[in-house]
Amino acid sequence: MNFTLHQLRVFLVVAEMKSITQAARELNMTQPAVSIQLKNLQDQFDLPLTEVIGRKLYVTDFGREIEKIAKRVLGEVDSIKDHSLRFQGVLSGKLRISAASTGKYIMPYYLRNFLAENPHVELEMEVSNKNKVLEGLRNNLVDIALITVLPSDLDLYEEVLMPNRLYLFGATENTQMLQEDSGADLFRDLPLIFREEGSGTRHTMQQFFQKANISPRIGLSLNSIEAVKQAVIAGLGYSVLPLVSVADELMLNKLSIIPVKGFPLRNNWRLVWLQKKQLTAVAAAFLSYIKEHKQQIYQTHFAHLEKVH
C-alpha cells in the first residue's frame, strides 16, 4: 500500500460531509482534486470506501473502519507536531470548546488575544443549546464549556467570566403602552416567544414563572436566539433575552426594554470543565490566560452594558 496522509485527510472530510462538493469547499480544493485524491486512496483497497446511491454519497462499513483508523493515525501525526513545537517552547494543539448559543456574543472576545498570541493553537468551538453543551461535557468531547446554568448531575470546576442579565424585550413600536413599571402578572396575557427546550434562557425564564406562580402565554417557540430576536422585532410577540445578545438592536432602536418588577433576571456566564478531566496543555494555558485577563476583557468589551437599565 502506498497512500498518503493527505489522502487520508481528504477522505475524512468527505466521510464527514458525505459530499465531494462540500468537502472541496471545506478543504479549499477543487472538486476534481478531491475526487482524484479519493480515487487514489480507493485504489489501495479491494473493497469500496464509499458508494453513491441516487445522488447521495455513503461511506461503506469498510470505509467506516478505515475512517476510524485514519483518525487515530492523523491524531498521532498531529501529536508529533505538537510535541515538536512544545520542545521549542511553542504552545500547540487543539482547544475544544462548547458554548451555549448566546455565548457566541461573548466567547470570541475571550479567545481573540489568546489565539493571536498562540498561532499554533487550533480552535474547535461548537455553539448549541444548553442540553447539547452538557452532553458534550458528559461524553468528554470538549475540554471546556461556556454556560450560565450549572447542572446538578456533573462535578465541575468553574471560572466565572461575567454577569448575565435578562430583560423583557419588545419591538420599540409595540412597547409604548407597556412602558409603565409592571408586575409579573403582565406575563399572563402577553404573547411570549420562547427558546426551544434545552435552552439556558428558556430554563431561566421558566424558573422565574414557577416562583411567581404564573402560567405564561407562549405564542411561539423558536430554536435560535436570532430567530427569536427577528420575531420580536417583527411584532410577533415579546421575549426575555440576555442583554448581551441585543446590544445592537437596542442601539438601533429596534427593540426596547419593558420594565418589570423583579427584572432583570441575573446569573453568570462561566467556563466549566469536568473535575476528573486531565486538561490538555492548551486548555490549561487558556484557563490560566482567562484568570489573568478576564476582568480586562470584560471592562473593554462589556462594561458599557452596565449603563443599560
Please provide a written account of the structure:
The protein has 309 residues and is α/β, with parallel strands linked by helices. The chain folds into three domains: 5-87, Winged helix-like DNA-binding domain superfamily/Winged helix DNA-binding domain (Arc Repressor Mutant, subunit A); 93-162 and 268-307, 3-Layer(aba) Sandwich (D-Maltodextrin-Binding Protein, domain 2), CATH 3.40.190; 164-266, D-Maltodextrin-Binding Protein, domain 2, CATH 3.40.190. Helices cover 41% and strands 23% of the residues. The strands form three sheets. Strands 3, 4, 5, 6, 9, 10 and 11 form a seven-stranded mixed sheet that branches. The protein is globular, with a radius of gyration of 24 Å. The model has no long low-confidence stretch (mean pLDDT 85).
Features of the shown structure:
alpha/beta, D-Maltodextrin-Binding Protein, domain 2, 23% strand, seven-stranded mixed β-sheet, 11 strands, two-stranded antiparallel ribbon, 309 residues, single chain, Arc Repressor Mutant, subunit A
